[in-house]
Amino acid sequence: MALLETVKFNLQRSVSLYDALMALLPESALAERLPAARSNSIGQQLWCVVGARESYARAIAAGEWKGFSCSVTKEQCLIKVALTRALALSGTTLVQVVSAAGTFTNTQNQLILDVLEHEAAHQGQLIRFLYALNLPIPDAWKSRYALD
Fold this sequence. Notes:
By secondary structure, the chain is mostly helical. It contains five helices and no strands. It is globular.
């Protein structure tokens, strides 16, 4: 498999992992924070994923960083349907932007790798939340990260 095809596959897999998480996560969990440690909420973690996807998609399309912004509001971080919709839309848009181009500049390649890294970093953080808060872990996450 060519590198670009591998990147597209990994990006789509990441989007699917977040979709699986949202399908299983109860809405009440979006406000949860890690106990006994400084943390933001699960909803805020997911807000950052949406904002990064939106921001990186714009940057990749433009060929340069255009700043961070997120379409999800502070209030929507606590509303499962709104957050699920934003994650799905931002994921689809990001995959489409990466799929639309034939070749990328070095800057665009770096932006694509950066967003994949960002996705994985939040997945690792969210795994800690799921374990610490005794929340259900999607089978796709168990399989991808060899979780029990």
